[in-house]
Batch of 4 targets.
Target 1
Amino acid sequence: MRITRALGAGAVAVLAMGVPATAASASSPAFRPVHTLAGQPTSITAVGRSDVWSAGKTADGQVLLQHVTNGRLRTQVLPVEASDDLAIHGSSADDVWLVSGGELWHYTGRAWRQVALPEGFVAATAVFDVPGRNVYVGAYEHLQGQFNDTVAQLFRYDGRTWTSLGGPEWPDGWDQAGTEKLSKINVVGKKVFAESHVYPPASMTYWAAYEVDGTTWTRFARTGEQSPANNSRMNAWIVNSTATSHLFLGIRGLATDPMPQRPDCMIAVVGQDPTSCTTSTAVGDAAKFSNGTVVIGGNDWRSNNPGEPEAWQQGSFVLRSTNGTERKIGGDPGDETLDMAVDPSGRIAWALTRSGDTYTLQKYDRYRR
């Protein structure tokens, strides 16, 4: 492992969620606040039943880490720019990874260390850790010396060797110019999935989801081409560990509004056209329990059904079963759910939520009342 910088241990945590149909019972499990977090956290990862990290931004734009272990909160600042693609992900207490400002960092259980990227690649934009030695990293390189033109690739790194898994194709009819980056990675068993964001020098942009088999990329879901100002994107996606590789999507849009209109919901299967689905809340983020149930963290949203006056709706937390039925559960996601995670046991969910300028880490144990 090539290392360029190292910093002593520091910690963090964050949470939130949104939701559907039937009302929650007062005695049922619910999301409960655990900690109010400092700064502006945007990403969380759960590496144990009571071990959660959050990553966000300090007032001066650096990475703020907050680590919750057994209810105790520790904080640390990394000397790294807190960029829009900041993300943290880990598989155990001594194996946590972070990308921000183009840099890749690794926590070993004792210290954070910066890890050098593959030769020629100038920035990391996504990371997903799996148990064992491997971590998956999205990075990009400049096209033939063109500073503003980038091409993304997905890599698997075992601590010594970087193995390229290739990258997504550009949209039909678009010149390979502009910025391409990987914005999200998911690994389920032996299946690898990636989300890409392409925005050329012209006025259009789009997001797409792919299944990666070796170095073969199969696109099975995408947003429409749009103005970058619209900022519609695949906001939450959950891959089921089945042979058909289902994908649950929430499409966030209309960034010009203070709160989004209720987004679309989609089920995508590799090799088939995506189909619409119904969900009762604007999806902020979502995560999946080990039994296949999806927990959704909602955002406040505007109802704009044809022929009906616009009305603000309160976001909520929801459980969505494998057959598509939904049940509202207790807890308040505030204005929006920023990120969600499930612990390695597959039974405890965490949510990072925001209400105004207050950020809260919340916990849901589906076996605790």
Target 2
Amino acid sequence: MREKGQHKHKTGLVIIAIGKLIQVLLVLAAGAAALILANRVPPESLAAWADATAPQSDLVQGLVDKVVGTDNKTLAIFGKGQLCVRCAVRGRGRGVGTTRFGFIEGPVWIAELGVLLFSDMNFSGGDAKGPPSRIRRLKPPSSFDVLVETANSNGLALSLEGAVLAATHDTQSLSAFDAQTGKRTDLTVRYQGKRFNSPNDLTIRDDGTVYFSDPDYQLGSRSSELGSVGVYRVSAPLGAAEGAAELVDGTLQKPNGLALSPDQRTLYVGSSGNEVWKFSVASDGSVSNRTKFAEVGGSDGMAVDCAGNLYVTSGAVEVFAPSGDKLGEISTAESPSNAAFGGADKKTLYITAQTGLYSIALAVPGFPY
């Protein structure tokens, strides 16, 4: 999550911008590719999808025009083999009930339960331990409730044991929540015996190793025991001893979102310096060889699909191939903060964006599904 002083935190109707897949067939012949598009939706039809109770502002119309308007912009996502699929956000979805969000972050899909969990932070409240937050639950298509009333969480991830692992700024560490009951277990994770600033986001390797970022956005009035920000690695079992965390990088400018490639050999880390970095990951989980992967308009949370494409939330969701080539963007009416794949077929990308939750149907499933 980026510095929140720049955001206007408004409550309002929850908005889910519903994505609609545009079918594309890629035909390879004589070294050239021919794209055959079907079921194109004209911009005037998209406008009719806008919430009738929402003001038809320039922002909403700009979203429709920018994504699938007269300029015919679409997002190209290249999966494995020679498959090319294009998709586009279909304007602005309808408000869901009267649920109000503060600032939402850290989405994670729980396949066993068929639900999406995410953190909902209240920046108008809080104390020295940072802003209060809940863990909310979405049962698709539009049923919301609260799993954990007092979580003080930001980024969420699913552990190998099926628990929801959270970056919690009240404990300045990590916490585990039962995915069904919400029962909380705080983990004693330290670096050289010192507390972290305010852990922000995390990703989990298939051997249980946890990588997490520790900027100082939710440090509040507390003093930093470390005196620096960084990216850390914790091997399972978590919190077995103080000082168990290992420093991955202590030089990035306010590190933020993290993601692992499908082969687990690359760790992506975003920073407030508008850059995404990649690190080589060895078989034992150790990290080395930092190189610049891409430049974005302010890097926040990330997601990866099964083809290895990286989805970086900035002013939009910017999509990059494993090579670092930019494939396109997904736009939402509010600036996105994070993203996660989910849904029954694991092909729905859920996007948290300030006060609204958005979704788009893609043609490739997300990793680690």
Target 3
Amino acid sequence: MEPKIKKLLSVLIILTMIIALLPAGKARADEEAEGSTGETHYIAVASDRHGDEEAVVKALTGMPDSVEYVCMDGDMAGDTDGEETVYNYSTIFDEVQSVFTEIDPSHVSILCGEHDAGAVDDSGVEGGMVFGAEEGSSQLMYTGYNEDGTAAYYIYAVAYYDMYSRSLAETSEAAFAFMDWVDTVKDNSIPIVVISHIPLHYAGGDNGYAAAWNMALNYAATGAETTEEGADIIRNVVYLYGHNHTAESNYEYYIPAGAAMKLFDDSCSSYIYYEYVTAGYLRDRTAATLIGIDGENITITKYQDGSIASTFAGEGAKTDFSDTYYTEAVRVITRVKPEFLFSYEWVLNEDGGYTVTGTAVPLDESGYTVVETVEAVKEIVREPGCEEQGEIRYTAEFEDEVFAVQTRSFFLDALGHDLVHHDRVEPTKTTVGYEEYWECTRCGKLFSDAEGTHEIEAPV
């Protein structure tokens, strides 16, 4: 097993109140944030239109003209007396493009919710994309690029039926598929925006499989399958959701990475390492969310009725699923770069042990290279058995705290059974007979065959 390099990463969180909307749509700053590329990419998201024909235009108006991707996060259809209104997808695309007149039509999408089953595909849709209409359809929705051709951000769509009504095994399968995709993203500095119609927090009991996706999102943000406090964030991840406009019609929630959140019921709590925010309820609130991405930096801005909202949550906002909610209209989060580039060299000694040399090369030219060599300590974790592999582990611990503990394990083949044959014994009037059998001299197991494949508890 190759040693894992522990990244010395942390998250620098800057909370900024908007004073005025600059032409570029960014919060005022005296100097450029670390990790900035000088290019800002904007993503607009909103959910739950439900037949409110003016809500989309009202919510998106006022956002920067340079918005390059728009996702309508489910339930665009109306519902009256329990009956859904059939509508054409093209209606939604037309509403979006009436605000962003220069946007590429292929950069406008609908992520289906349960009410969108009443929608119909329409030949008038030119370039717009519809996602998540079927189970198992969670996927990479869009990749944004910088001017130099490098990836700037990823948008991943979680299908409605991959969160809401599928079995736990199938939902976990979809979450694991997301984790597999995350493993293909080698550059941790590229933010991931995940959009789902269904929320993860406890607010109605209709998201019973939130735990699998919460673990997957934490994995994307930390590189580890964790729900515990104190994990290091290596990548900025944002999760946007809709659906709860009826239960939470007065509230626009925002929970920061590192906070605790109750998931699908009141008893399941987890630390989250991704930014968790409503997409913006169009019905009742005429709200939308603008995500700004500049290199490693993310800005989250809430809009309502065509202007920047003064608060995330209304007066008396519920906090039953989180001890913390933020009222800032804009928040900037920065993933801090590692201070060193690490490498570890393992050299086999004549005595069978290992000498390990750690090297930490500073990414800042003002720093200095750290080199330390230690002898790895051997530990026999498990002796090999007849059927089980053995394991030997070598552990290298460094004096300089800049280096993480390194381990390397080697596995020993199972020994196999050492069988001796026992002849068949004929029964007599006073003794019981039995068929021939084989006995292992190491583990004592009995077998009815010479290959040791059919174990028996006693001679038959």
Target 4
Amino acid sequence: NIQRAANVHIAGDVRFSRDPLVCSKAPGLLSAAGLTDRRGNLRNEIEGSLHHESGFGGTEYLLSGLVSEGSKRGLSYNRMAELVCWNPAHRYGLNNKGDIAVGYDADLVLLDPDEVFTVKAEESESGQGYTPFEGMQLQGKVKTTILRGHTVYSNNEVIGNAKGQYIARPTPRP
């Protein structure tokens, strides 16, 4: 079974919209916001299969897209943080993430909400080589990312080696 071998989960009819907040057209129903991106391809995982870049390039534009479109639609920064931090963390049992408080991991993003930029696939960290957001103007640029208290991204550059790690869930509550 190719789906199982590639560790790919396909759930229902997946449709794409260039509108980062297409779900917000049903107020109150949006509980989390996210994109998926995988750097590998299925050929590397299943010998002899057709070449297919899974996911799509653009994960790094999630927060900027949310700030751009959410601001136009009346979402507060607190609500945006809830959508991309608190709700997903608690949905997946990461009880020590999603908030800035004593006992929580120091995972932070510093964003300039006024900086406007144009999305260009060649500037993306994705292995896809394309993004459906190509050419879009977004407002709100990530300047620094801090993971567990360590700066991992600053001034448009990834800093140091990858620091990702497996986290068994659920995590203890702080």
